[in-house]
Design goal:
This protein is α/β, with parallel strands linked by helices and 307 residues long. It has 11 helices and 14 strands. Helices cover 34% and strands 27% of the residues. It binds adenosine-5'-triphosphate and magnesium ion.
Length: 307
């Protein structure tokens, strides 16, 4: 378990992480969200023992990150933002070096490196120097160094940033496959990633906690939660749709003859909408019930429009 309690970081007069508290349990993949400058990387640096908090504490599997820093760090694999590595080393020599730093020697070292290399599919670039690798492969080297000691906690700062769609997909699959027996915290700006891999999401802005819940819970705060979006072959009667019980409003979409019928909080409006379609005989090509839009929830939260 990871426990963060009243964690605070000030740089000069500037409070960057402000009284942050939350817990993460085994098996959870926590998405750490917030606008640029929110304090995500700073929080991760404190959690991994690279930066001392101004006040507050954090512990990793029972080890305090300040009093028991080395023991805490042994439990953690960390991919820093941008995945810095030693550019002039080859992939193999870099991973050997990291494995040695982690205390492995001889056959076990070789085994550990080989396993990490296989997990992130680095076999074909082992003898290449890191600075000559593409961004995606550099990121994979960063991931390999984070998992070489099979840590119980993974802290990954924007692991898929700048990767192509295939590599994003691969890295997400890797995170999922690693997560069943680990605690994973990933920061990301890609909200679809949160729905795809995270069991929980924490949103911060200006270093303060704004929301903490499952992706579904966050989506259900969206004004589009349970909205019914229609695309028809003819104009639809907005007034009649807006008058249905449980409906809070109707919005026109960019596509021709397309509307989103919004539900009041806690209401399910699909049956009423469907009945009206049947009654009027509208030729509807598409009909969707929305779960909610994370990007809209994120924007309202971080601009302070939502409490
Ligand atoms: N060493 C430092 N000295 C002074 N200010 C710092 C330092 N490190 C970070 N900051 C400031 O702390 C704030 C939070 O930065 P941080 O990197 O944690 O944000 P972030 O949420 O990771 O943002 P991004 O999404 O852009 O990565 C920023 O305003 C940043 O300028
Ligand atoms: Mg950051």
């Amino acid at each position: 378990m990871i426990e963060i309690s009243k964690l605070t970081k000030r740089f000069a007069q500037h409070t960057v992480v402000d009284d942050l508290s939350f817990r993460v349990e085994r098996g959870e993949v926590l998405g750490f969200l917030g606008p640029n400058g929110a304090g995500k990387s700073t929080t991760m640096k404190m959690l991994t023992g690279f930066l001392a908090p101004t006040s507050g504490t954090a512990s990793v599997l029972g080890f305090d990150i300040q009093k028991d820093r080395l023991k805490a760090q042994r439990q953690i694999g960390y991919l820093p933002e941008g995945a810095p590595c030693y550019g002039d080393m080859t992939v193999r020599s870099f991973l050997d070096f990291i494995a040695e730093v982690r205390g492995f020697k001889g056959a076990e070292k070789r085994q550990r490196v080989a396993k990490a290399v296989a997990q992130v599919e680095l076999e074909h670039v082992l003898e290449q120097s890191i600075e000559t690798l593409s961004k995606g492969f550099k990121r994979r080297v960063g991931l390999a160094q984070a998992i070489v000691h099979d840590p119980r906690v993974l802290i990954l700062d924007e692991p898929t940033d700048g990767l192509d769609p295939n590599q994003k997909h691969q890295v997400r699959k890797l995170i999922q496959s690693l997560s069943y027996d680990k605690i994973v915290i990933i920061s990301t700006h890609i909200l679809e990633e949160v729905s795809a891999v995270c069991t929980r999401a924490v949103v911060i802005a200006h270093g303060k906690l704004l929301a903490d819940g499952t992706p579904l819970e966050l989506e259900s705060r969206s004004r589009y939660h349970q909205a019914v979006t229609l695309v028809a072959e003819e104009p639809l009667d907005m007034v009649a749709l807006a008058a249905l019980p449980g409906v809070s409003g109707v919005e026109e979409n960019e596509r021709e003859h397309s509307l989103s019928v919004l539900a009041k909080p806690g209401e399910v409006i699909f049956p009423q909408v469907n009945a009206l379609i049947a009654q009027r005989g509208w030729r509807v090509k598409e009909l969707n019930v929305e779960r909610g839009r994370l990007d809209e929830v994120f924007r309202s939260l971080t601009r302070g429009e939502m409490v």
